What we know:
disordered N terminus
Amino acid sequence: xxxxxxxxxDSGLDDLVRRMDPDRWLASRxxxxxxxRADVVALLAFNYELARVAGGVTNALMGEIRLxxxxxxxxxxxxxxxPRKHPAVEALAASGVDPLALARMAEARLADLEEAPFxxxxxxxxxxxATAGALAGLVAQRLDPAADPASVRAA
Length: 155
């Protein structure tokens, strides 16, 4: 199962990731399998959508609403419901990536809306594990189903 249409760049996600996350986009060019590359790009686009919420709202409540939309969209996929009409959601629905892991990433991004800094290093590390670490683990699993996400996050 894959997010890759006949032309994996039709969704506009590839261009979005190229513009907004050029380092990760460039790394995705090393994925030779176009279906796997499209799935990786869908994951990167999802990550971008979550990461931009805090900077795009004027108050925390609006950010919570947006992150809840993403979390619920992923929970709906996990429940077997059709994907919401959004290129990233549709691509992720076709990718076979665990939608509950994506829902947890959306939930973790609520920390972005907090005004207070993390209280300790353990909080920072937990946040990194749940966001960028989770993304790296999901990408690794998509490229190699035998990949251990915990090892990827530890790296």
